[in-house]
Structures are given as structure tokens and as C-alpha cells.
Design brief:
about 35% helix, Rossmann fold, 2 domains, 12 helices, alpha/beta, two-stranded antiparallel sheet, globular
């Protein structure tokens, strides 16, 4: 069970109201689907430069698993991918993303496909699968990893990047409760009661997903595991690594990044903190993992098998 101080609803609500008053209204509350796709597209190069600069997409079939609206797909096309598959369980976002991508990126749209995972069948084996900022939303990580394993060709690569449960943003509630590590400070009941109080307060501006689905999406939610639209598995860094190591993939690397980068004293301290178990659960900015589907090994003429994954990873 995740650790928390479990402070009650009145404390959470009072501090939230104070922090929201100090923060003021954020422009993000009025963001449209097209704006969010633009954000995904424009942020992809920065993400690549920092976390996967050596990953080659040239002439690859790429799956963006948990793509949402699919705004990163045009970037993968521009990076050399021959085809990109946007895979997500949210049919409404797939439909919206497909329409906007066709309008905004017509040159790339013919090489981008949108599909629900239950109906997805790649035309041939995928070369690369990406799970960007999505692993924390997987209700059954083992099942998804097995599914992606089946989609990839032997020797294919899976890249996973996100953050663990004790990251300061991991509640995905800071738009409503602008308090870092709020899920470590307050009980789930306190967080959810506060969100419902905030969204029904006079002058509240619904965000994109609340405009699409209505404020009622928060009704009846009793745990952040059932967060509307974005369920949370609450896996710590340790839990994530264990899930990856237990998959049929070979875990090639698992790197944890500090809260600050750079050569100064703060950056050096943050870098050290990111390498210390337990401490890095709270003080990390991101993790990135590289997994590989083992290539087929020929053991006799016409007889092939896939070796078992080692499950070992580099720290």
C-alpha cells in the first residue's frame, strides 16, 4: 500500500484554496485538443534529446502505446519512421487525434494509423514501441508488456519513460491541487473530496478533458487508481523496475534522472540523490528504460526458438 501522511480533507482543502489563490488562473485550463497535440509535437524533440538521443527511428515501424491524441506521431515520421501506430484505449481521443492530425500534418497523416489495442494488428512486426508518460496509467502492466512483446519483431525495442508514484507530480492532480507531493501528504479521500469542491466552486474553468466528458467524471471516484480518464497504478520506481524485469523482455537499462541537471552544486546533488535507493523515489524527475525482444536463435535447420529474457538491467 503506498505510503502517505494521510492528512484529512479540511487541511487539504484549506491549503489548496490558498495555493490556488496565490497561483491565479492558469491558461492551461482553456487548452483545446489541437493545442494539446501541438504541445505533444513540439515537446517531442526536447524529450528525445534528453532521454533517448541514440534511438534510431529511420525506416522503422513505430508504435506510440498510450498515445492519447497522438501528437507525437508526426515527430516520429519526421525522425525517419516509415509508419507510426497510435495505440490507446480512449476511442474518443483516437478519433479526435486522427482528425486533427489529418488537418494539421497532412503530409504525415497517410503514414499514421490510430487503433485500439484490442483490435490492433500491425501489418508486419514493429521495430520500436514507445511508452511515453503512460506506464503509470497501466492498470495491468504485465498484460500490456506481454501485448507489446507480441507486436514487436524479434530484436525489436521497447522504450519506457515516465516517473514513479512518489514523484511530486505523480497524483496527476496538480491542476486542481497545486501542491507538490500532495498524494504523499493527504489521504486519497481528502484529495478527491478537494477536487470535487474545486470543480464545483464558482468561477472554476473546466480543463480540456472535463469539457469533453463533463464534471461528473469525478463523481463516485473513491481512489486515485480509478482517476477518470487516467487510472493510476501507484507503482514506485522499485515497483516499475520489478514489473519490467518480470516481463518477457530483456531489460537492457533503467536510468533514474535527478530533479535538476547541470554541472553546478545543485545539479550534482540532484544527480547523487537520483542514484540513492529510497531517496530517489521522492527526488527524481524521470526514469527511462530500454527493453529488447530477444532475437530468434537458430538451433536446427528450420527450427527456431526465442531465448528467455534475462531480466537483468543496468542501473
Amino acid at each position: 500500500m503506498p505510503l502517505s501522511l494521510n492528512l484529512p480533507s479540511p487541511v487539504c482543502l484549506a491549503l489548496t484554496r490558498l495555493c490556488r489563490a496565490l497561483r491565479g488562473t492558469r491558461a492551461a485550463a482553456a487548452r483545446s485538443s489541437a493545442d494539446y497535440i501541438e504541445y505533444q509535437y513540439r515537446s517531442s524533440d526536447t524529450l528525445r534529446q534528453r532521454f533517448f538521443p541514440d534511438l534510431d527511428f529511420m525506416n522503422c515501424a513505430v508504435a506510440d502505446v498510450g498515445s492519447g491524441l497522438g501528437g507525437r506521431a508526426p515527430f516520429f515520421i519526421e525522425a525517419g519512421a516509415r509508419r507510426v501506430y497510435c495505440i490507446d484505449i480512449n476511442q474518443a481521443e483516437l478519433a479526435t487525434g486522427s482528425r486533427i492530425i489529418a488537418e494539421r500534418f497532412p503530409a504525415a497523416a497517410s503514414r499514421i494509423e490510430f487503433a485500439h489495442p484490442e483490435s490492433f494488428q500491425p501489418r508486419d512486426g514493429l521495430d520500436v514501441a514507445m511508452l511515453i508518460d503512460a506506464f503509470e496509467h497501466l492498470v495491468d502492466p504485465a498484460a500490456v508488456l506481454a501485448q507489446v512483446y507480441g507486436w514487436l519483431r524479434p530484436g525489436g525495442l521497447l522504450w519506457v519513460g515516465s516517473f514513479g508514484w512518489y514523484h511530486y507530480l505523480a497524483s496527476h492532480c496538480l491542476e486542481h491541487i497545486p501542491i507538490p507531493w500532495c498524494h504523499v501528504l493527504f489521504s486519497e479521500r481528502a484529495i478527491l473530496n478537494t477536487i470535487r469542491a474545486v470543480i464545483h466552486a464558482r468561477g472554476y474553468q473546466p480543463n480540456l478533458w472535463e469539457r469533453l466528458e463533463g464534471l461528473g467524471r469525478w463523481d463516485g471516484v473513491s481512489t486515485l487508481k480509478d482517476r477518470p480518464g487516467e487510472p493510476l497504478n501507484m507503482l514506485s520506481l522499485r515497483g516499475v523496475r520489478q514489473a519490467l524485469a518480470a516481463s518477457p523482455f530483456e531489460l537492457r537499462s533503467f536510468r533514474v534522472y535527478g530533479l535538476r541537471s547541470g554541472r553546478g552544486a545543485v545539479g550534482q546533488i540532484a544527480g547523487v540523490a537520483a542514484r540513492v535507493p529510497v531517496v530517489n523515489e521522492l527526488l527524481h524527475s524521470y526514469y527511462a528504460a530500454v527493453l529488447v525482444k530477444p532475437p530468434r536463435v537458430e538451433i536446427a535447420a528450420g527450427d527456431y526458438r526465442e531465448p528467455a529474457a534475462s531480466g537483468a538491467g543496468a542501473g
